[in-house]
Amino acid sequence: MAHEKTFLICSWPSRKLCLLTAVICLGISYFLFTPQEAKTSIIATKQLIFNSEKIPFQGTSSPYETPGEKHLHNITTPRLQPTPSHLKVNLTTPKNKEMHKDPVPYTFLIPEEDKCKKTAPFLVFLICTTESEKLRRDNIRKTWGNESLVPGFSVVRLFMLGVQKQGSTEAIRKESMMYRDIIQQDFQDTYHNLTLKVLMGMKWVASYCPNAHFVMKTDSDMFVNTEYLIQKLLATISASELYFTGFPMRKYSPIRNSKNKWYMPFDMYPGKVYPDFCSGTGYVFSGSLATMIYRVSFSVKVLHLEDVYVGLCLQKIGVRVSSPPRVSLFNPYKVRFNPCIYNKLITSHYISPNELLIFWDKIQKKKHDCF
């Protein structure tokens, strides 16, 4: 027993020494063989746990929250702030990078702001043109753009231009002084800026002619049967109705071929299908829609295809594209000329300046012979 007791007493300090040696070896092994990433992770975890005891919980809204979910939050948890409805992302409608900015912040070089001061016109023509198309403008003034063409109905004709050179040219200023039917802003007049030109027209109507009953956007290479448009179509539509019609383009998909004229890059419009729109060759709409389209354009990303872009604005507003009474009324292509056929349609495309004069003369002569 004495031997055993002596063994226990002598071995206890040895055990302490062994334990201390083991701890030291373990520490050396940790610093020599543990990867740096693991050390960092361990330290960060300790700091997170320590800090969480000092910082109270601050809730955030769910990234998957739908517009209706903001009403489902418990009112006793005020830290949960749902995303405001006007900032929610509509996946089908691209947004401007800077919300609520005027997409056409350009200066009116020629505003023609007095055009509607004396009367609220029944119809406003917004005609896309360029500086070099003087002959086309002159022939339109003589034919379907004649503001006195339809008795009893006030018509306003406006040609819309950007600038192809630095500022408005002297020739354009003289033409404007003579006819008072040109509006122009200082953006570059290119095909890819056609949307800016159309939005300029919408802005003009909203600013200077908000009481117009109807508006028609069309191009300078078009034939328009103004009499049929007014007497057979627009005269039957209530001025209070939100009406939009033309040649309907429904369920059209973006063209991803970069060599195509109507190419749409995926990053500009990632959707598989466009909303319904009308061919940009000619569409007609209620005058009040001009203001609505211009205002909603502040929050719809500008696309270079103006007819598609207007369709996106209509979708945002909640206005549907109406089909015309007959499919053959609006034509984005050239209809083979026949006086009686042209007497009963509204638009035909790719009409040269000389053809317009010839066609118009024959139509007027045959007007009462066609049934």
From TrEMBL:
Q: Which GO terms describe its cellular component?
A: Golgi membrane
Top-level enzyme category: transferase
Q: Name one GO molecular function term.
A: N-acetyl-beta-D-glucosaminide beta-(1,3)-galactosyltransferase activity
Principal location class: Golgi
Per the UniProt entry, the Enzyme Commission number(s) are: 2.4.1.-
Q: In which pathway does it act?
A: Protein modification; protein glycosylation
The topology of this chain with respect to the membrane is: Single-pass type II membrane protein
InterPro entries under this entry?
Glyco_trans_31, Nucleotide-diphossugar_trans
One GO biological process this protein is involved in is: lipid metabolic process
- Cell compartment(s), UniProt: Golgi apparatus membrane
Keyword vocabulary terms for this entry: Glycoprotein, Glycosyltransferase, Golgi apparatus, Lipid metabolism, Membrane, Signal-anchor, Transferase, Transmembrane, Transmembrane helix
Write out the similarity annotation: Belongs to the glycosyltransferase 31 family.
This protein is called Hexosyltransferase
